[in-house]
């Protein structure tokens, strides 16, 4: 896991789109480190933090790993 994250830091994440019920929500997942990402209001890919998770899905309140 740690090695994979390191690889992502050097080479960048390999993002795949996660299909959600809502087409308005864009969420991505890295194939290597399994970290999840979303797109913020500026169109930039950001790590899917609990903040964004609550923004996207209000009822979902899982705590993501503090990397
Ligand atoms: Zn990654």
Model description:
The chain has 67 residues and is α+β, with helices and mostly antiparallel strands. It has one domain (2-56). Helix content is 25%, strand content 22%. It has helices at residues 2-11, 50-56; strands at residues 15-18, 27-30, 36-39, 45-47. The chain has a four-stranded antiparallel sheet, with no helix packed on it. Strand 2 (27-30) and strand 3 form a beta hairpin. The longest helix has 10 residues, at 2-11. The termini are close together. The relative contact order is 0.18. Zinc ion binds next to loops.
Stretches with pLDDT under 50, minimum 5 residues: 59-67
Mean pLDDT: 78
Number of beta strands: 4
Number of domains: 1
Number of helices: 2
Strand order within the widest sheet? 1-2-3-4
The ordered H/E elements are HEEEEH
User: Strand fraction band?
Assistant: 15-25%
N/C terminus separation: 11 Å
Gyration radius, in Å? 12 Å
Shape, principal axes of CA atoms? elongated
Give a list of the ligands.
zinc ion
Question: Main β-sheet, in a few words?
Answer: 4 strands, antiparallel
Which helices and strands occur, and which strands form pairs?
Layout: H1 2-11, E1 15-18, E2 27-30, E3 36-39, E4 45-47, H2 50-56
Antiparallel strand pairs: 1-2, 2-3, 3-4
Bound molecules: zinc ion.
In short:
With about 70 residues, the chain is α+β, with helices and mostly antiparallel strands. It has 2 helices and 4 strands. The longest helix is centred in the first third of the chain and has 10 residues.
